[in-house]
């Protein structure tokens, strides 16, 4: 009887109680189109619809603003190209967490995992969900704010719905991603087409006024102009998300670099043309005073159909939130597999092939940040330095792998000039906020270092009291029974 009780308290593995099952780990279900839609869906969020004013404000002129959008796209494309080598060399999901851990050890990898999984991704999902609720409610409350807590409740409903979809099926999650990515791109194409018609069909000089003296009022101060570049790069955030789920990508040696190349070109092309279209209707001064330039654009051009723009923002935010939940849950899964997160986060439902505990953990953290919704935007600003530190660390890992694994199979082998240029850019993006906003930078570093006591207690301390193992095993078994999940042996070598 005692042996039976002990057996019931031990976590199950993938083969216990599952006859004839040959599937192991996460299913390779993502096609090239799915990969493109995930990257495009994550990059193109609410920002391009709501507020490209940040770039205009810091750049000062239309000409420099457009240069910033192009340069930001090219910079992220270089970074994505470098990540293509890393992703086809290290066949592990987890993105920079996997690369930093592999190159520089588990401690630095854990700090990257901690800030990304616990703060950055859930906060991003919360912000996107709140943006969705605000713009969905705007048609019902055009001249006043919605009732207290209504936006938060609608945002919570979206997070819960997308968490359920991602728990039920990878196919359903990718279908949602594909649909809303197409929808948001079509909305942006409509804006681009309107701008094209304004300039080349209507031919009214008022539509080209913003392009006269295109560099007038350009920011003279280099520091101010560089902040425009920082804002532009923020709009491209998400370019490296496919590397976090590379294990689920079919034929990653082909589809990973292709997905990255197609997505970066598409997003840069769309961003630049959308900004050009906006300038045909709005002057730079109008853009600075409008809190939602795309909605203002629709009000001026679409008349009774102007309500379609808030719907386009909703489509954009749903796709972004879904992409964040999908990729973030895999980050928890990989972290648990490496022993840096609780064991139950590495467990998969054998029927759905989804890491249900990891998906639900992502959703719950996002819901928790709704409580801090008034301050969550500041929190995102605080952790930008750790974001670029991690990106720089991943590029440094590329140099390390070139030295330590010179003969490894590299389907993508970039010319070293590209990682050199990108690493220099990352260093500049780390130094800029230190010089410009030392207080916020210090807070961001402090948030990152909160992972130190967690690492010391849960990972470094090996001889924990017996009751600790009893509690954690009991929790693991409870979660296994609740979600019908099992631990899968994912110890296969994932390096080339």
Overview of this structure, please?
This protein is mostly helical. It has a single domain, classed as Amino acid/polyamine transporter I (Up-down Bundle), CATH 1.20.1740. The protein contains 21 helices and two strands. It has a two-stranded antiparallel sheet with strand order 1-2. Helix 7 runs antiparallel to helix 16 and helix 8 packs antiparallel against helix 15. It is globular and about 75 Å long. The N terminus and C terminus are likely disordered.
Q: Element order, helices and strands? A: HHHHHHHHHHHHHHEHHHHHHHE
| Helical/strand content category | mainly alpha
- Can you summarize the main beta sheet? 2 strands, antiparallel
The CATH homology group name:
Amino acid/polyamine transporter I
User: What's the CATH architecture name?
Assistant: Up-down Bundle
Could you give the distance between the termini?
A: 47 Å
Cα radius of gyration in angstroms: 23 Å
Number of helices: 21
Strand composition percent: under 5%
Name the poorly predicted regions. 1-22, 490-496
Lateral strand order in the biggest sheet: 1-2
DSSP strand count: 2
Q: How would you sum up the global shape? A: globular
Helical amount among residues, as a percent range? Answer: 55-70%
CATH class: Mainly Alpha
Q: What's the pLDDT, averaged over the residues?
A: 84
Whole-number tally of structural domains:
1
CATH topology label: Amino acid/polyamine transporter I
GO cellular component, one term: plasma membrane
Region (Disordered): 1-22
Biased composition (Basic and acidic residues): 1-11
Keywords: Cell membrane, Membrane, Transmembrane, Transmembrane helix, Transport
